[in-house]
Amino acid sequence: MKYFKVFSSLIFILFFSMILKNYFSKDFISKKKESREGYMTFLNKKIDSITLIKSQKNFKKFLDNSNFFKKNNEEKEFWKLLKTK
Predict the structure, then answer these.
(1) Residue range 21-73, pLDDT digits in tens
(2) Are 47 and 41 within 8 A, CB to CB?
(3) Torsion-angle region of residue 51: left (phi > 0), alpha (psi -120 to 50) or beta?
(4) What are phi and psi of 39, to 5 degrees?
């Protein structure tokens, strides 16, 4: 069990040092910036290629649909119970 703990701690230290060495290197940071810029240009091209839907309908106009719904003026039971306390 003791050897396993030592072995696992060595693996952790090696893995962590490799991450620190490679993740914060200038090469990785420059590749990361290039890939992000490439993705931004890809998104901008996709946004430009999306066609807008032309419609004559005014979506901001309010339609009163209350006559289609059943009116419920009764209080629910749990509200009555809460009011009694």
Answers:
(1) 888 888 888 999 999 999 999 999 999 999 888 877 777 777 778 788 777 76
(2) no
(3) beta
(4) -70, -35
